[in-house]
Design brief:
Helix content: over 70%
Number of strands: 2
Order of helices and strands: HEHHHHHHHHHHHHHHHE
Strand content: under 5%
Shape: elongated
Oligomer: single chain
Number of helices: 16
Length: 420
């Protein structure tokens, strides 16, 4: 401590020194070695005493746990049970204290004050939470309890003395400089690693962009191929034919829908052909395509006769409309419908066969489109990762930490430091 106090009042000239970053920690430790030699010795002594007392607590807790009441004392079982309960609670809380208290083996100018603070807080907590158990336990186990109490008091005293040593801001500054040097060393390695990750990310992004460009070019080629144009022409032809098919079906529906009421009534009085009539009522298109002999014409002739002779009763307007509809349905018209409908169906089937054969080009187009979407996502992710890494690099702010170290070294050691 005497050397330290002398150095406080000793004036030094500012000298310049260059130090490599990899040598900086050892260089700084060597520079302050003489100045803190007495302090280190004192801290080691006090921390040693502190650890000795903590070990003593464990030993004396064991004695307290195994202790038996003085045989001379006539203790009622109920009283002993109550006191033993308080003893167990006290021991449990002290063991929790020991589990929470950690003290570094090396002299760490930054961590030791923090450790002292934790111990102080834990001692205060013990004092508040074990008071009742302490006073109850001492009635039967005073001697053993007193030893634990002495240990705790000595721990508090040792912590107080250590804290006093570290009250000087200059001592804390030594720790801060060492911590900053370690951060610079770690940050340099991390910066190099992050820098490599950024470079690798840029290379990956570039490779993805090239692959995307190639895929886009390939997609344009596929879409410009004769095979692809033919496929799209087939799709359009199929759509056009399906529209025609729906139109034909609509025409047939319009032919037979006015006959529903008359056909239903005729179905009830017909001697035969009821199944066929039911088919035309349910699905006239299928019934007509299945009606090879066009028996529907005979059925409609019978419907007409039954309307005219009054066997099928319809309202006047409905009667006139139904008879007009029957008159319009001719053999030629039905044959023409069937022929046109089958032609359209055959063409649709042919086109669908051609489309199936040409599916390769559509599959290839879909594969390329999906690949472009994936590549676009990968490029965005790569770009986001690069931005995140750049932000991480900024957050390191190693230059500020270097300036802090240079500034502190000048104030502490009167050295104009240049870190290389």
């Amino acid at each position: 401590m005497i050397n330290f106090i002398k150095n406080l009042f000793k004036k030094k000239e500012i000298v310049k020194e260059e130090v490599k970053l990899e040598d900086l920690f050892d260089w700084f430790s060597a520079k302050i070695k003489e100045e803190i030699k007495d302090i280190n010795s004192e801290v080691k002594e006090e921390t040693g005493q502190l650890k000795h007392e903590l070990s003593g607590i464990k030993k004396n807790l064991s004695s307290l746990e195994d202790a038996k009441p003085d045989p001379k004392l006539k203790v009622l079982p109920k009283v002993k049970q109550t006191v033993d309960g308080h003893r167990a609670n006290y021991i449990r809380r002290i063991k929790l204290f020991l589990g929470r208290v950690k003290f570094p083996d090396d002299i760490d100018y930054l961590n030791i004050p923090g450790c002292c603070k934790v111990i102080d807080e834990e001692l205060d907590h013990i004092a508040k939470t074990t008071m009742k158990s302490f006073y109850a336990t001492q009635h039967l186990y005073y001697k053993e309890l007193e030893e634990v109490g002495k240990n705790l008091k000595n721990v508090s005293s040792a912590v107080g003395r250590i804290k006093k040593i570290f009250m000087d801001p200059r001592i804390r500054e030594f720790g801060t400089v060492k911590k900053d040097i370690k951060e610079i060393e770690k940050g340099k390695d991390m910066a190099a690693e992050v820098g490599k990750e950024i470079d690798d990310g840029k290379k990956r992004e570039k490779a993805l962009e090239i692959l995307k460009e190639q895929t886009d070019k390939k997609l344009i080629e596929v879409r410009g191929s004769e095979e692809y144009r033919n496929y799209n022409d087939l799709v359009e032809d199929e759509k056009e034919l399906k529209d025609k098919k729906r139109l034909e079906e609509s025409k047939l529906f319009n032919i037979f829908s006015p006959l529903d009421a008359a056909l239903k009534k005729y179905e009830r009085i017909a001697m035969d052909g009821r199944g066929q009539i039911a088919g035309y009522l349910a699905y006239p298109l299928k019934a007509l395509l299945d009606d090879k002999e066009l028996q529907i014409l005979g059925i409609l002739e019978n419907v007409k006769k039954n309307i005219e002779n009054g066997s099928i009763e319809l309202k006047d307007k409905k009667k006139i409309k139904t008879l007009e509809s029957i008159k319009r349905i001719t053999k030629e018209e039905l044959k023409s419908f069937i022929k046109e409908y089958k032609r359209i169906n055959d063409e649709i089937e042919d086109i669908q066969g051609d489309l199936k054969s040409a599916e390769r080009v559509v599959t290839e187009e879909k594969r390329l489109k999906d690949k472009l979407v994936r590549l676009g996502d990968d490029i965005r992710l790569a770009d986001m990762k690069i931005l995140t890494l750049k932000d991480k690099m900024k957050d390191m702010d190693l230059e500020k930490t270097r300036r802090d170290v240079v500034h502190s070294v000048r104030n502490l050691l009167d050295i104009e430091l240049e870190i290389r």
